[in-house]
Amino acid sequence: MKELAPYLEELTNAPTIEALWNLHTQQMASYGFDRIIYGFTRYRTGTSLGDPQDWVVLTNQSPAYMHPFIEEGLYFHAPMLKWALENNGACSWRWMEEMVRKDAFTASEMKVVDFNRKMGVTAGYTVSFRSVSIRSKGAIALTAKVGMSQDAVEQVWAKHGQDILVSNNVAHLKLLTLPYSGSRSLTKRQREVLQWVGDGKTVQDIALLIGLTPATVEKHLRLAREALDVETTAQAVLKAAFYNQMFILEA
């Protein structure tokens, strides 16, 4: 594993999400956490985390795990996700073992526990990041390698827990600054017209500035709204800004 200071310097200078994620997964694997799921939403309500297509989700878990967990909705009843939504900081998965022993989980929650056991997701830690908005929440699940017990995880955490926690907090904060498209990607032209709207320009202004007809500008704005799955141009500007897709430096 890399020393904390050199690692954080490299992490904070990562130019893309892909570069950051590659660095972070390697560092976490060096502690024994070889499967990770990072999730972040800005569309949380009292009953929902928003459209999964609007989440930032990064993982090196297998598709065999992620498809049932996300697409089939197991995440909605995942005990550690529920913990993360209600708390900040780090939580040992020992908590789940204790809850199972107390028969404190619902049938739906036990279904997730049994699925995790089947997939070898049995030992680890969850880190829940402090939010600055009631609409946003981020967390990361650190799954220990197959065969590693929770006791062994606790030994690692006792020795390196503070470094692991700091590393994940910095990775989270850095991720919030990097462009992310997911399934909501914009073309260069769509991004350009949204940027001009964000600068307060009208459709007629934008047409003159970039040498297009107003009708063509309107077309690009409509396509941007469709790509971002929003109803208004103001919502499109906000969502594009949320995911750092506006005013970005081209490679």
Question: How do the strands and helices of this protein lay out in sequence?
Answer:
Blueprint: H1 4-12, H2 17-30, E1 33-41, E2 56-59, H3 63-71, H4 79-86, E3 89-92, H5 94-101, H6 107-118, E4 124-129, E5 137-144, H7 150-175, H8 188-198, H9 203-210, H10 214-228, H11 233-242
Antiparallel strand pairs: 1-2, 1-5, 3-4, 4-5
Helix pairs in contact: 1-2, 1-7, 2-7, 8-10, 8-11, 9-10, 10-11
Describe this structure in words.
- The protein is built from 11 helices and 5 strands, in the order H-H-E-E-H-H-E-H-H-E-E-H-H-H-H-H.
- It is of the alpha+beta class and 251 residues long.
- The protein folds into 2 domains: 4-175, Beta-Lactamase; 188-242, Winged helix-like DNA-binding domain superfamily/Winged helix DNA-binding domain (Arc Repressor Mutant, subunit A, Orthogonal Bundle).
- It has a 5-stranded antiparallel β-sheet, with helices on both faces.
- Strand 4 (124-129) and strand 5 form a beta hairpin.
- Helix 9 crosses helix 10 (214-228).
- The protein is elongated.
Distance linking N and C termini = 30 Å
Q: Which architecture of the largest domain does the CATH hierarchy give at level 2?
A: 2-Layer Sandwich
How much is the average pLDDT?
Answer: 94
Strand proportion, as a percent range, falls in: 5-15%
The name of the CATH superfamily of the largest domain reads Transcription factor LuxR-like, autoinducer-binding domain
- Using only C-alpha atoms, the radius of gyration works out to 21 Å
* Net shape: elongated
Helix count, DSSP H or I runs of 4 or more residues: 11
Helix coverage percent: 40-55%
Structural class: alpha+beta
Number of strands: 5
From N to C, what is the helix and strand string? HHEEHHEHHEEHHHHH
| Major sheet description | 5 strands, antiparallel
CATH topology of the largest domain: Beta-Lactamase
